[in-house]
Design brief:
The protein is α/β, with parallel strands linked by helices. 28% of the residues lie in helices and 26% in strands. The chain is globular.
């Protein structure tokens, strides 16, 4: 089996395309084996190559979290999909028995694992996952867009709906438009009826964001976004800030946040350590929300929106598996607008 692997953490030089990987087999009667047609990259993939605290890989480690493909075989107990079905792959697995899983909050499971990070990834010709981690979509689905959809959209859906509870009329500020989660948050925000402002250091990206429905844009280069948003809202501020940049933007995000505002994050690409004036926190009655991935029910919700054409991720570029190193380099450059996809087979 062909697949993209690493055998140690480090630079992108660790990436190795191999054609001698063992094919995964059905280990349980609830397992599904998928012939992966396309996979997509996330910043998680860059972090994994560099090394993540507490993550140990077993060489050769198959990378990649996102993917879509066609069911090749199923266990005896599988009922929701059949051989030949086109499916989206949910990257997150859980034990489905703990108190969090039984309450429908699978991402909080202590055994929660993400493909490519804690278990073999999607950048290979075949992948075995539990039945709960695949969902059928139309047979005529564009598999490049399907592969680009799961992780970023699932993360964004939980951030915007379950956590920040965005509703029609809310003012939402999204940092760093162009990445997968930010773009999904933009699309979800507009689907929910919010007024969405996005930021970028690139005027070209802001123009493309307006074409996707952004109501307002800010080039954040040499601009205090907090002050700018207060000026644009008559000092009121916004209801929700989506900030996964972290250290470099946190103070400006709080500066943009209005009374009863909610700030939601799923990462800290510029650094993890944040400073918050607790007096402003309690006086303005802000809510600070962390969010990671999404539940099985949330995955079913976004899959329905995908199938109906209401949520569809922009694809920046498609590379063949043999050129996957270039896909990683494209993502690392920060120049992409939309998802970077790898065609597997």
């Amino acid at each position: 089996m062909r697949g993209l692997t690493i055998s140690a953490h480090g630079t992108l030089d660790q990436l190795e395309l191999r054609d001698d990987l063992p094919e995964p087999v059905l280990a349980r009667d609830t397992d599904v084996r998928v012939r992966v047609r396309a996979a997509a990259l996330n910043h998680l993939d860059l972090f994994l190559v560099g090394g993540l605290p507490g993550i140990t890989i077993t060489p050769p480690w198959i990378v990649g979290s996102d993917g879509a493909g066609v069911v090749e075989s199923v266990g005896a107990a599988v009922r929701s999909v059949a051989v030949g079905d086109t499916v989206l792959i949910n990257p997150g697995t859980s034990d489905r028995t703990c108190e969090y899983c039984t309450s429908g909050d699978q991402p909080l499971c202590r055994q929660y694992a993400i493909a490519g990070e804690h278990r073999p990834g999607t950048l290979a010709e075949l992948l075995v996952v539990p039945e709960a981690n695949v969902i059928r979509v139309r047979s005529d689905t564009d598999l490049m867009h399907a592969a680009a959809f799961p992780l970023a959209t699932l993360t964004a859906w939980r951030m915007m709906t379950t956590r920040a509870r965005v509703t029609a009329g809310d003012r939402v500020l999204i940092w760093g438009i162009g990445g997968g989660v930010a773009l999904a948050c933009l699309q979800i925000g507009k689907l929910l009826g919010a007024h969405v402002t996005v930021t970028s250091g690139s005027d070209a990206k802001l123009e493309r964001a307006r074409a996707l429905g952004a109501d307002d844009t800010i080039n954040h280069t040499n601009v205090d976004v907090g002050r700018e948003m207060r000026a644009r809202t008559g000092k009121r501020g916004v209801d929700v800030v989506v900030d996964s940049v972290g250290e470099a933007t946190w103070a400006q995000s709080l500066g943009a946040l209005g009374k009863r505002g909610r700030i939601v994050t799923c990462g800290g690409t510029s650094g993890p350590m944040l400073t918050t004036d607790v007096r402003r926190l309690f006086w303005n009655q802000w809510t600070i929300l962390g969010s990671t991935m999404g539940s099985e029910s949330e995955f079913a919700e976004i899959a329905a929106h995908f199938d109906a054409g209401r949520l569809r991720p922009p694809v920046d570029h498609v590379y063949d598996l043999a050129d996957a190193r270039q896909a990683y380099e494209r993502l690392a450059s920060g120049e992409q607008f939309g998802k970077v996809v790898v065609r597997i087979s």
